[in-house]
Structure formats: C-alpha cells, structure tokens
C-alpha cells in the first residue's frame, strides 16, 4: 500500500485511537496487577463488601427501573410532539448530566429540608436512608435513560403509529401496541445505561444518603471508605469488580444493537 | 361519498394546500397525480385525520369529520412505506384492528383467514414483516387496512416499491378488492399507466391546488 496523503491521515487517526486505548489498557493492567486474585477474593468475601455489593445491585436495578419508567413517556413526548419551547425543555432534561454530582446531592439534601420535602419524608424517609441511595442514583440515571429513549424513538418511523391511529388506536394504544414493541431494544439499552450510571454514582449518594457501613454503603462508597483508611488492596479489589460489572453492561448494550 | 370543502394547509411562510375542494362519489376509484412535493401526502393525512387543516372541512357520507380523531373516521390508510408493525406477525397485523374492537377470538381468526385467502397470503400468516418481499408486504398492508372495514381507503403510492411484473398483478388485485368490497378509494400515484388502469376519477394536484381531469 502506498502511503499517500489519505492513507497518512487514516494512519494518524488510528494512532490516536490506539494510543488512547493503550492508555486505558495500561491503567486497568496496572490496577489488576496491583494485588493477587487470592487477596481480591478475600476482600470480596468480607461481610461489609458483600453487603455493599448486594445493596449496589438492588439499588441500581431499582433506580434503572424507575429511570426507564420515566424515560419512555418523556422520550416519546420529546420525539413525537412539536411544541413551543421544546428546545428549552430538551436542554433542561440534560441538566442532571452537566451538573457536578456533589451539587445534585446537595440539591436533594436541601429539597428534603423544605416543607414539601418534609411532607414527602413523612411518607417515605429518604435522607441518609437506602431509599435515598435509590433516589440519588435515579436523578442522574434518568437523564441518561431519557437521552437513550429519545434517540431510540427518533430512529423509529412514526408511520406505523399513524397507521395504528387510523386502525382504531388511541395515541396511548399506539404507543403501547406499536411503538413500545418496536423500541424494546432501546429500552434494554436505556435500562443498562441507567444501571451502569447508577453503579458508578458516588457524589450525590455520599452527600444525600451518607456512607454508613452495612446501611447506605454501595460499591463506590466502599472504594472511598477503603481509600480513606489506607486499605488500597480492598479499594483495588472493589474497583476491579466494578470494572467487570461495567464491561458486562457494555456487552449487554452492544448485544441489543443500540449505540451508547 | 367523500367531500373535501376548501381544505387549506399552511406552514409558516408557505401554503401547501390551497382551498382544495372535490367530491368523490361512493364506490369510486379515484386516482390523484401530481409532481413530488405538491401536497398529495399532506392531503391524504388531512383526510384520515393525522393532520388538522388550517381551514376547510372533510365530509364523509355528508358527515363533517374534520374534528374527529383518526380512529373515529373509518378511513383506511396505506402509506408509501406500508408501515407494517415491526415485531408483529402477519396474522397479528391483519387482526390488529378487529382485536382492538373486541372481536371474539374465533371470529377474529375467521376474518384474518378470509382476508389472507382473498389476498393470497395464507402461507405467510406466521411470518414477521422482515421476512416478506415487497409485494407480500403490500398485500399484508392492504389486508390490514381492509380488516378495519373502512368506508374509504387512502393509498399513498402503494405500488412504488414493486417491479413492473408485480405491479401489473397488484393493479389487478386493487381492482378486484375495490369491486368486491364496494370501496371508495383515493389512490396517489406517479404512474400514468397505473392511473389509467385503475382510475374511474382522475385528479391532478399542482402547487397545492386540485384540478379534476376526467371521469373514466
């Protein structure tokens, strides 16, 4: 192959890509070889970390489920309906993505000190509770799920729904019988992305739900708690476990055919 | 009978349809032709209720249906891309409208089988849309629309994706279906031969205005 200008351009771009991936491989490689598999297993078997793992799996699943329940109607509305101020609403839906995580936690904490917040807490206590972990994960994960569902519905033609309307459907029935079955892969992707996002959530949980061992401690909190007491080996083991979970989610999303 | 009375559709800075008026008698096969972008699809969407006109009325058998929901109009619509429901088998596509109306399973089955036989798609009933050819998809879309027992059938270039040999067969099928079901049909096409073979009433749309051509 002759190295003409076009080939040189592709070669340069490929080098940038390979360089970036190599950097990540080195990062993960260094972390993975920091300690031995035996010591990882020992750490992962400790009651505190088993509790944090169980709590993470449960809260992430709940947060992702709630995020999907919100993302489907919001994504559908934002794709299928044209209205004044839509671009502003669109931007507003992305706010949780760009807000610093600690600020999200602080907003939650302050909201539940207001009158409305206190009334809500009389029914379901959130602050420094497990339900608070779910809420803190949900508020950020929902924004990502909405983005995914919006993209999914944008890629689906609205024509079948139009035809369903002429065949006797209400708009809700067209959504239920036609749009949702067509969007099922996008829904799986939105759930996985929300789940993965919830798994990595740390700042809002720390501020709003706290980091109490065997109570509101989730995996990212464990990494922080272990680091703060100088137990680097435990922090590494939990981090690698989280990397493994993240890879599994990525594989699941790719298997649905959706782009992340 | 379908009657369009001074239908107008405007978007900011542009008039797509301008005072479109026409009456299509019952059991008539009307063919609408016109250059791309002249407003033919918009007109069909207004007639079946997917768009609200800026002004004007749509009357079906003398009843003003302009403000009715699409599902309340009894108008069948087959769009250009046929818009089969992804993930639903042919049997479910055809049975979609009767099932929504609460038709009993036994009768639903009979109706689906009867239509499948009429359209020659009985062996395809358990197939998904992805596994159908262009001609098969077109038959399924027509059967699905007819299963709702519409008073008026709107066809938006339904034969455009078919090759020449299949098109002749499809034209014969449309003629037979219109006669057997005593349907009023409004068929949008770019093909003069298709229009000549099918149309009792020929309409032409130019720059958002409708011009009657001839009565066949």
Number of helices of chain A: 14
Backbone CA Rg of chain A = 22 Å
Task: Tell me the span between the first and last alpha carbons of chain B.
Answer: 17 Å
Fraction of residues in β-strands of chain A: under 5%
Name the strands of the widest sheet of chain B in spatial order. Answer: 6-7-8-3-9-10
Largest sheet of chain A: none
Overall number of strands of chain B: 10
Name the average pLDDT of chain B: 91
Task: Report what the structure shows.
Chain A has 2 domains: 1-33; 38-256, MetI-like fold (Orthogonal Bundle), CATH 1.10.3720.10. Helix content of chain A is 79%, strand content 0%. Chain A has 14 helices and no strands. In chain A, α8 packs antiparallel against α11 (184-200) and α13 (219-228) packs antiparallel against α14 (232-256). The radius of gyration of chain A is 22 Å and the shape is globular. Chain B has one domain (2-215): Rossmann fold, CATH 3.40.50.300. Chain B is built from 7 helices and 10 strands. A 6-stranded mixed beta sheet of chain B has the order 6-7-8-3-9-10, with helices on both faces. A 4-stranded antiparallel beta sheet of chain B has the order 2-1-4-5, with helices on one face. The longest helix of chain B has 17 residues, at 164-180. Chain B is globular, with a radius of gyration of 17 Å. At the A-B interface, α9 and α10 of A face β6 and α3 of B.
């Amino acid at each position: 192959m002759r190295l003409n200008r076009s080939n040189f351009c592709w070669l340069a771009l490929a080098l940038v890509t390979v360089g970036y991936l190599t950097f990540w491989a080195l990062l993960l490689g260094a972390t993975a070889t920091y300690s031995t598999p035996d010591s990882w297993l020992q750490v992962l078997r400790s009651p505190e970390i088993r509790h944090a793992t169980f709590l993470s799996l449960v809260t992430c699943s709940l947060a992702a489920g709630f995020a999907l329940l919100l993302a489907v109607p919001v994504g559908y509305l934002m794709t299928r309906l044209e209205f004044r101020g839509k671009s502003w609403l669109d931007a507003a839906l992305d706010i949780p993505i760009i807000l610093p995580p600690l600020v999200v936690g602080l907003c939650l904490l302050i909201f539940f000190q207001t009158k409305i917040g206190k009334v809500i807490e009389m029914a379901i206590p959130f602050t420094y509770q497990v339900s608070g972990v779910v809420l803190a994960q949900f508020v950020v994960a929902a924004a990502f799920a909405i983005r995914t569902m919006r993209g999914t519905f944008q890629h689906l033609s609205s024509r079948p729904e139009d035809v369903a309307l002429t065949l006797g459907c209400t708009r809700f029935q067209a959504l239920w019988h036609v749009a949702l079955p067509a969007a099922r892969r996008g829904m799986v992707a939105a759930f996985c992305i929300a789940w993965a996002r919830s798994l990595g959530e740390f700042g809002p949980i720390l501020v709003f739900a706290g980091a109490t061992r065997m109570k509101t401690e989730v995996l990212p909190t464990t990494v922080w708690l272990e680091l703060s007491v100088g137990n680097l080996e435990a922090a590494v083991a939990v981090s690698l476990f989280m990397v493994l979970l993240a890879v599994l989610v990525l594989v699941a999303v790719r298997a649905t055919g959706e782009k992340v | 009978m379908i009657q369009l009375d001074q239908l107008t559709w405007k978007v900011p800075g542009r008039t797509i349809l301008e005072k479109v008026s026409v009456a299509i008698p019952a059991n008539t096969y009307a063919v609408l032709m016109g250059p791309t972008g002249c407003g033919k699809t918009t007109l069909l969407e207004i007639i079946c209720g997917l768009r609200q006109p800026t002004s004007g009325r749509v009357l079906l058998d003398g009843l003003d249906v302009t403000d009715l929901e699409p599902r309340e109009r009894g108008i069948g619509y087959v769009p250009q891309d046929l818009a089969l429901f992804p993930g639903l088998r042919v049997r479910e596509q055809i049975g979609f409208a009767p099932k929504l109306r609460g038709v009993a399973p036994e009768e639903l089955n009979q109706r689906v089988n009867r239509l499948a036989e009429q359209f020659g798609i009985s062996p395809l009933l358990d197939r998904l849309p992805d596994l159908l050819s262009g001609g098969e998809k077109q038959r399924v879309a027509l059967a699905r629309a007819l299963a709702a027992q519409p008073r008026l059938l709107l066809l938006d270039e339904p034969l455009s994706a078919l090759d020449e040999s299949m098109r002749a067969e499809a034209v014969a099928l449309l003629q037979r279906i219109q006669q057997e079901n005593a349907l009023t049909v409004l068929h949008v096409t770019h093909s003069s031969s298709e229009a000549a073979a099918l149309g009792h009433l020929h309409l032409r749309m130019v720059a958002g205005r409708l011009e009657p051509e001839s009565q066949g």
